[in-house]
Structure formats: structure tokens, C-alpha cells
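Progress narrative, work stream C.
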Amino acid sequence: MAPVASRGRRPHRAWVVAGVTFLTLIGAAGFASLPGLLIDPLHEEFGWSRGTIGLAVSVNLALYGVTAPFAAALMDRFGIRRVVAAALTVIAVGAGLTVFMRASWQLVLLWGVLVGLGSGSMALAFAATVTNRWFAARRGLVSGILTAAGASGQLVFLPLLSVVVQRYGWRPAAVTVAVAALAVVPLVWLLLRDHPADVGVAPYGAEEFVAKPLPRRGAARRAVGALFSAARTGPFWLLAGTFAICGATTNGLVKTHFVPAAHDHGMPMTAAASLLAVIGVFDIAGTVGSGWLTDRFDTRRLLAVYYGLRGLSLLVLPMLMAATVHPPMVFFIVFYGLDWVATVPPTLALCRAHYGEDSAIVFGWVLAAHQVGAALIAYLGGLARDAFGTYDPVWYASGALCAVAALMALVLRRRKDAA
């Protein structure tokens, strides 16, 4: 008789795996917290333009996205543990070697290429793979919790790294990121498991035991095949388009340029970084709440509301910039935190509804669009600051893009199994 999930009082093993995944994503989040803190120090030390530094960040963000669908297929071939452990090691190497760089191309190679490849290999596709394999119920809630892990890591690392950068320089901060990534590797290797069948249980909420599928060869071919198949459908382009705007207005814009933009108005770097950390606090509540709502309401309308409100807040932001933290700015930070990646659970649910067992890989390609949008704004935001001496045009343009995303979400075709 096939093994089944234990019905004792111990928590289902799926929650242990989800917990390890959450902690892994927190530990690896330091590398995502640092780029916005490096723009001014690198500009002052090396004389590199903000556009040049933004180029390295944009390469990082683009590779983060493009790598994700191949990583999901590699996890099917080699297992989650091996892929994630290797990705963390690559991140540590890339971040650690930046302390020796002397030219801007080295920043692009180390932080852009190496850290981008490593981070993309354990991006949201990692969370999607864990959710799909280990959970048959509460998927919206779990995807929301795992998505919030990145924000939690930002909460842990941003204030620390800003203090390190201000007191000791950017090099010790880069070393801190490398050490944090390496410290998570033993946790992944000892506690993370690839499939419920590895420990003889059924997925959480499933009535029957699910056998572990055989490793799938041809990871690259499968990832590209899933892209071509999905690209022939309208929902893919609408999901990719909305998620590109999501990335542009979060990782590309606020995470990369909020600290230097606030510094332009006289706000200390540590104060601006602390505001970003507060975004991380409320992002946890917003993303978990969005996962709960995704299990209960029309995901298309949720997305439209999220993007519409985000756009309005960005249009107001230029009027809130000041040398000190004041209540309207705090309100913006709280609101933007609640909305930061609340878009992920409904987007992931729509991918599952439309693309079935290939949904994790398709979501990886949708995430690639997210990161391409982020990369464009990270680069163009730096160019705009160099050209106009202010970030205001970027805030206004991004607010208008959010209105377009809200309309695209409403146009999405609904499927009965998306409920």
C-alpha cells in the first residue's frame, strides 16, 4: 500500500518545507537590498554615472527574470535542493568579488551577470515549484507567504546594510551579502526536500499519495517549448505585460531609485533605507492577505485594483519628497508596502488556471517580463536623473503605466477553474 500523509498532531511536512523555503528566500534577500544603496557611493568613489551603475542593476534584473523559467525546468531535472544550493553559492561568489573591482564592466559582470544568474535560479519560480509540488490546498495563501519572504529579507538587511555603507563603506556591505547567501546553503541541503514522495507523504490537502515523477531531461528545451506554447495564447501576453509593469514600479523604480531620490531632497541614506524596510514590513501583510483574497475572489479584479491604487500613489509621491520623514510620506510607504507584490498570488493563480502542470515554467517566463520591466526602469531612471536632475518624470510615467496594467488585467479572459 502506498504511503500516505500522517494524521497525527505533528504539522504536515509541507509546512516544514515551506518554512525552509521562506527562510532561504530571507537569507538570500540581502543581495536584492544592496543595489539602491550602492548608487551614490560608487558614483562618488569611481565617478561612474548613475546610468552606468543603473546598467549593471538592469542586467542583474533582466537575468534574474530570464533565468527563472530555465531554473524551474532544472528543478524538475536535478531537484530543488541542488539548484538552490548552487544558486546561493554563485550569488556569494559574485557579491564577494565586487570588493576587488576597479572598472564599471566588472560591476556589470559580477553584480549584473553572476548575481543575476544566481538570484534568477531561486526566484519566484522556486516558490511556485514548492507550492505546486507540496500543496494541493491553501496554494494562494502559501504563495503569498513565500512571496513575502523577499520583503522580510529586505526588512532584515536594508537598515543593517545602510548603516554598514554609511560607516564603513560599500565593500563590507557586499561581503555581508556574500556571507548571508553562503550561510543558508547548509539549511537548504539538510532540510529541503524535492517532493512529498521523498518523505512518504501526500501533498498537503491531497486525498491520495502522489508518486514522484521521473526526472525530466531537456530542461532548456522544455522551458522554451512552454514559452512557445503559452505565447500562442492571449492570457500569456496580458499577464506578461501587467507583470512587466509590476516589476518596473517595484524592483526597477522604488527599490533601486527611492534611496537616491530621497537623498536628492536632503534625506539621510539611513532614513530612506529605513523607509524601504518599512515597505518590507507591510508587504508581508499585504502579500499574505492577497493570497487569502486570491483563494476567494476574482483574480482579475484584484489585479486591476492593485495596479490602479499603485498608480495613484506614484503620481502623488513627488509632492511628498522632503529632507525629513513626515506623516504623508509614512502613509505612502505603508500603502505601497501593502501593494508591493500583492500582485503575485493572483498572477500565479491565473497561470495555474490557464497552463496547468507547466504553470511554474510559464510563470517563470511571466516573471522574466517582470524583470525586463524592472531592468528598463532601473536603467532609464538613472538616465533620467542624469538628464533632468530629478526623478519626477519617472514617477509620473510609472503612475500612468499602472493605469494601463489595471486595464489589461480586466481584459484577461476568465476560466472556470481559476475561481
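Work stream C, second folded protein:
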Amino acid sequence: MAQPASDWDHHPQPLAPDSAPAPEYGTGSLADLLPTLAAGMAVPGFTEAIPELTPADRNCVFLIDGLGWEQLRAHPDEAPFLTALLASSRGGTGRPLTTGFPATTATSLASVGTGRPPGAHGLPGYTVRNPDTGELMNQLRWQPWTSPKAWQPYPTVFQLAHEAGVHAAQVSSPTFENTPLTKVALSGGTFLGRLSGEDRMDLAAEQLAAADRALVYTYYAELDGAGHRFGVDSDNWRGQLMYVDRLVQRLAEQLPPRTALYVTADHGMIDVPFDEQHRIDFDEDWELRAGVALLGGEGRARHVYAVPGAENDVLTCWREVLGEQFWVASRDEAIAAGWFGRPGQVEQRVYGRLGDVVAAARDDVLIVASQREPKESAMVGNHGSMTPAEQLVPLLEVRS
């Protein structure tokens, strides 16, 4: 006899890992941008992964932390210059890129700078386990300290461009000049620190004009900070977007001849309500804690490290508890589904950094950890997963 529909409603099937909208590695991800630009400047070893980008002698990438494609499209009044670029880039329309998984700053910056997906560069999350020590490694703050070269051994695109005779420069906050994340993701050529956004725009334009072939990167972080603290539906965030829009216009108006400026971001963001329905507290949930040795990642993209021998039990439990709201996968399932790179791109040295179980949010929900992650658990705006609001970032072009 067929089971009544009402019974099926009480036993929904968990989301299949391969149903998640995996990033477009190799054709339309952040990791494909700099290799495409480098190929257009005849830097050896690179090929065009985004063929619709026309080569330029001088290229500038302005990365705005936290500016998602969907958030930009939803705020045309606050960002008139950027909104105009949505309709005018490359003679047609601006397009989105996918950030890579997880959609978080450390992972995305490494993807941008190395031109490799997370499974290759090895920064696959906000916090991940170091297989050599068994400790959680915060890859944004680089705590506990780990040898940068051992953790991420590949040269950056900036380094390779510099070696090929291209003038390479990064213009950012002085705070980031000597951080390990900068060293592994964005080093190569000259780092120039400036505090104000206006000074960065002016200096980026000067660096572009400093040579016949130039590759310049500049960065702005405060939009992301406003989103985390106040949410992307806040006046604070809108005010930051208005400022960012003016910065892009300032830089665009100073571009030297034969330059292409690309405006992009490292992730989008969503606001998550502060209630038990939307914020599941790992530290207060005995089911989710059972068999778990370490909890990594962040609220919308969790790496879960099981006690040896409990991997299957943890996977089963997390699927039963979260399977309607999260894509929950074993490490091998997540790799096979292309979450961290195309087939064959996840390297053995990175394999053990990935969770035994990986959970990516589909709905507007978080797995917080109020005791072990009090600051992160208090954030209004969040990101990390593969939903369009988090995964899609703009690729807007201005040419001179």
C-alpha cells in the first residue's frame, strides 16, 4: 500500500549535494579573472578563461569587499555610477561571477590572487583544520600562525606578471601590507598603503600610468563591515555603498589610455533574523554536537570534523536535522559535486583541511556557536554559501 502523502511530508528527503549551484570554476569564477587578464598581457603560462574580456595593456581590479551582484542590483539609487555600468559594460551588460565556495573573504582573495580554486590554493574556509596539528586555523586572521609558504605554495598572478615585465602593484590599507593572507594571496610587485579611499583611487591611477603594461589591484573593506554589523538592509550599509560608488567613479575618471578597470567583489551577503528558527546554536544543540571534534567554517558554510570513527554518524545526524535547509555532504561528496573545484583540482594537501561533513545553507539560516564564536554569532549580515545572494558578485568594466 502506498504511504499517505501526510506521512511523506514528515520525512522529506535531504537536499542532494549535487543539487547545490556549484561555482563556475574555469569559466566564470573569481579565480578566472586575473589569469584572463594576464593572458591578455602575454604573461607566460596563462590562458583566457573568460573569453569575452578584451585584452588591455593596463588592467586594474577594484575589489569591494561584500558587494554582491544581487545587492547592487537592488540599490540603483545609492549606486548610480555602478548601476550604469551594469548596462554598459563590454557594450552590453555587466555580468556576475561566482566567488567560489565558501563565499568568504580569505577564500575569495586567495582565488583572485592565485588564479586557482579553493581546492588547489588551500584556503577553503574561514576556519579549517590543520591536518598537521589538529587545530582550527583561522585563515583570515592567520591564527594560530602557520608558515604562509607551506600553507599556500603557489606564486600569485602578480608575482608571475612582475617576473614577465609587467608593472604589478597593490594599493590597499597599510594594515594589510605584511599580513600572511596578503603574502599568500596578493603579493608580487609593489604594495602601496593608503588610508583613505580617495587616496587609493588616485594612487591606483598613477600606478596604471607608470608603465606600458600594468596590473594594479585595489581594495575597499568597509562596505563588508557595515553589512556584518548593521545588515545590508541598513542605512549604514547604504551610506557605504554611496561612498563606494563615488570611489569607482573617481578612479574611472582618471584611467590612463589603454586601460581596463574591472570592479568586482569577494562575496555577497544576506541578513539573518535573530531568532531560534533562523539561528541554530551548535553549542546548545546536543544532536549536532554528538561525535563532533571540531566545528570550522562559519554560520552558512560549516566544516565539521568528526571524532575518528564517527564520520558516518555525524553525516547522518546533520542530514536529518538540517537536510531541508542545508546542503549537507560528506567531504568526498562535496568534492565530487564541484564545491571546491573542478574534478581533479582538489589537492591531497588540501583534502584533510576540508570537513568530514560540509554544510552549506540554502535557506536564510545560520549554524551559530554562541560560546566558542560569540562575535561571529552576533553578526547581522552573513555569507559563505552558494545561494545567488552570496555567491554572485559583479564584474563591471570601464575602458579608456
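Residues 1-10 have pLDDT under 50 and may be disordered. No further action is required on this item.
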